[in-house]
Each structure stands twice: as structure tokens, then as C-alpha cells.
Fold:
Amino acid sequence: MDRLKQALAVALLLACTGCMGISEPSRTLVPLEVERWYPSDVVFPKPDQDPVLQAIRSELRIDLRLTFSTGRSNDWRSKMGSRIAAGDYPDLVYFFNMMDYRSARTEGWLAPLNNIVNERNYPANLDYLTRSLLQNIADENGVYYGIPNRPPLLLEGMFIRKDWLDKLGLPVPRTTEQFAETAIAFAVSDPDGNGKRDTYGFTSGGGGCMSCQDFWELTSAFIGAPGMDENLAPDGSVRGGWTSPEYRSYLVYMRGLMEKGALDPDLITNDLNRKEQKIKQGQVGIFHSTGYPKELIAELKKNDPSAEVIYMEPIAGPAGKGTHGPKIVNSTAIGISIKAARDPVKLAKVLELINWMNGPGGEKLLTEGHKRESADYLNVYNIAGENPIRRPDMLLKLFPDAGEAAIMRKMLLYTGNAGTLYGLGIAAERPLPIDDLKKYREQMAAMFIYGKAGLDDEGWAEYVKTHDTTHNGLAVREAMMQDLQKHRSDLNPKNE
Structure:
């Protein structure tokens, strides 16, 4: 019996404890609802023209129903909160970040999975799972309530309007100082030549998230790794963190850009749709992209045929050369609700679906779809497997244009070179009190950058005190440092 059959058998047995027996599985479709958030609007093919949906129905006998929200992620969280409060549990949830997974883990509606998916019986295509990967998402008692996805090979990068650079006689920025000079010039020197001050040096589309992808390269140049959390310097010391001098320097830098008009004033309210709309309309000179923004550039050129967008390597700052994205162990996970886990047939189908998406059948469909004009709907389907477009061996197949493939190789080269203690799995984020703390951190990041909170010594001291006491930041850091010490002890057990 192969591993998938073993896992399905275990799932059926555990979910049906006390049953008199299990009848022969019906050939009718088993409904499965997947709840998730996606950053931008998505257009799906008609069901009879959707190869992924048709394959899931015919091969797996699953009637897959996607319930997803776009736009601001906080709107999705509010909707999910209302669903859960009403006892309306989806079958599966795709957690696009571990904060939401941890919150759900404490709310009691996710099924514990230690006896269902583990190193003895996980499905064959989930061979990337390890005990440490599972324990990394476990609670204090070692119980995990999700299936972590493959450690991602991120494809992140920054892009810049070369035609604007040429018009203003500027080089491609290589340092944080040059980035600031360029972003300010893009905002105040009329690079589009329309006689109006209606352009911005840089924008974001994180829906209020001030530590997400759009800012990774900038934070890494100041702090040493993408994001504001603590990371290890080359000498093994801990640097960064939300009350660190490195983070304060980054905030001073960003506030200066905001004061001089270099940053989009809607930085905190834009979602991905609005960000992309501004880029297409020629309002933005520098932007971050997850994946090569081929369609976005094409739309921009429709509006402005003279527009030229080029890839920009990471800039260097006080912490050295930045990186486009972090090196991480866990970033996304699949949660199975207690409702689905109580149904033995449905639980078995959940495992079968996740196994299929991680295997050659699912990967083939999710890969070939990228040849289409728009493949966002495939990314919505892909709740479990690593996006194949990120694999170096797939670049030439998916992007036959040699220039585009070369750019993505560089994006891969400059992504994943540094990570935080959390992202590397060295430290575990405790759901309490870190979720409340994260909200405070994000709110204050915006206030600092918009000039609504003081960054002088008095203002910073007040922030640090509130962070460490009122919102338990000191306790969170102490727990992190304990995890780091244990990690070092595990690596060097003979050291005193």
C-alpha cells in the first residue's frame, strides 16, 4: 500500500471512529469548499472550459468550490471572522500567512492533524514534509492544525521606468541614497512631461501592510533581511527588530521620502488592484513585483507606447546589499476544518486533492496554464503545490523570450539570501500575544512614515515602552531569544 493509500485509510479510520462500517465510496462528486484570499481580481474561464476544474472533477471526483475575496486582506479577515462566529466553517482554508493560521489555531475550528498527516503516513507527493517542518507550525503542546506548503522559492523583484531615468538624466539606483534621489525626482520633476505634479517615485499594494513584499528590499538594506523582525548578522549576532536602531533608521528614511512627495500618499490604503492601476496609468516610477510583470508592462505600454520598464537589482544600504525576498521555512499552510474532518469521505478527498496538487498531474495543469494571457485563476486554485513558474528549470519553457528568462534568473538569484529568526524556523511565533502586537506594529509603522508619530528620542522612547509593556513586545522577544539559544544548543550539543 503506497503512502497516499495509507494516509487515506488513516483519515477514514480516525474520522469515522465508532462507525458501524464504511460503504463503498460513491462515484458522485464530493463537494469541497476552499476559502482563501487573493490580492487582485480574477477572471475564471467558464466551467466547461476550465481544465483544472474539469480535471479535479473527472480524476478526483471532487466538486471544488472556491470562495475567495480580493482587495484588502483585512476585509477577508472580517468576513472570515463572521463566518466562524456563525459556525459556518469552510472545508479548507488557504492561509497565505502564518499569523492568520495561528489565530485560527487558537479559535478551535481547525482539526488537529498529528495522527492524520505525519512522517509515517503522509501522501507520497508530500515528501517534502519533515518532522521539523510540522513542528514549526505546532502549538506549545506539539499539536499542528495545518499542512505546511513547500518551502517556497520566491520570485520577487523591483522594476523601474527607464524612460523616466533617461529623460531626467539619472542612473539606475544602486544605493538607498540613489533610490531616494530618484524617487524624489520622479515625483517632482515631471518625468511624464504633462506639466502636472501627478507622479510618484514608489507605491505599494499591501492593503495596509507596512512590512509586506513591497517594502522587503528597502527594509533589508537597512535591517539585514526583508521585514522588520530580528535576523542574524554574518557574525552570528542578532540585529533588526521592531524597536531596533536599524528599524528606526529605516523609518526616518521612509518618512523623509513621504515628506518630499516621493511616496504615493495612498501607500497605506492601496490594494494590489489599485497599485497596478496606478502603474498602468503611468503614475509610478518604481514598484515591486511578485513574478515578472509581463501583463502589467504590456498594459502600461498600451497607454504610453514610449514607456520602458526594466528590472532593478537590489539596492545597498547601511546593512549591505538588500535582497528582494526572504529565505523562509513556512509561509503558507492548508487548514482543514473540524467540519470536514468529521466526514471520513470528505477528509479523504481533502488529502487526495492536496496530494494531486503536489504531484505531476496537478503541476502540469498549473504550469501549462501560464501560457494563457492571464493565469491568476490558476494561482487561486493552487492552494498546496509550489508555483512551478518559480522553478529555474521551468523558466525557459514558460518564458521563451530569452530576455525575460534572464531577468527572472536574476530575481531568483537575489531572493532568499537572508531570513528572519521566525522565517527560518529558528524561533516560533506564539499566537498570544504576538497577534495583537503585530497590529500595533503595523499601525505605528504607518504613523511614523506619515509623520503622525514622533521619531525623535522622546517619541521613539514612548513607542518602545508601549511596544514592550502594553503590547508585550519584551515577552515576545525573550521567547524568541530562548528559541534561538535552544536552536544553537541543538546544533552544538557539546557546547556548554
